[in-house]
Design brief:
By secondary structure, this protein is mainly alpha-helical. It contains 7 helices and 2 strands; from the N terminus they run H-H-H-H-H-H-E-E-H. Strands 1-2 form a two-stranded antiparallel sheet. A hairpin with a 4-residue loop joins strand 1 and strand 2. Helix 1 runs antiparallel to helix 5 and helix 5 packs antiparallel against helix 6. It starts with 38 loop residues before the first helix and ends in a 19-residue tail after the last helix.
Amino acid sequence: MLFCFGVLPACVTTAPNPGSKPVPEQSDRSSLNQLGKSDLDRMADVQMRENMHSLRLLMTKLYKRNPRELKKSTSGTVEEMVGWVFEGGHGWKFKNINEAQGTDAIQLAFLPDYQGDRVLPLIVGLETMLVKAHGGKSEFYLTDSLDPQNIYNAARNVEIAAWKLSNARDAQGQLYLLTNELHDNERNLSFEREFGKIIGRTDLYAITLAEKSQRLISRVALSLATALFLPF
């Protein structure tokens, strides 16, 4: 996907393929609000907005794949639950999970003795972790100062969470949450692809930010099976 942030004099446009997703655009590009933003700020805006869209899609897919988890939280529909989580105005603090956020919430989703809805802490943890890595914000301006190391670490934490989702099992050997399907006649890797998008966007922004700010990133080699969530 090519992002154009005012660096090139023009961008060539082509007719979209049927069913394709349009290139993300700032909804208020011509407003005074945009005068306080650099190209890097706009890139951060798009990255965060697209990652939140991916998390919303993942939450929807997880509930549909694991309807028992939805029933632990509500008798309503998947769409109603997802809308309540993302648009409920509760500051991403939920009594159902003791207001856990970040990696604490992600870990809750994989605790053997946890009896609640496992989808909720996973998505809340990923969302609040990504926001924390970006200085507690989801919209950015020239006056903001972001640490590329924190953003890089957040991408590694998403990798760890994705591995746990596909591999962590209970005492009976069952996955805590069902995701990808691999059968002789069917391969559904849509969960893996969506996590890959989040990791790719986040890594790209971290590397671009490090280059622009001339700050080094300490890269880590993870053994996902034994990796601990990285702090920041």
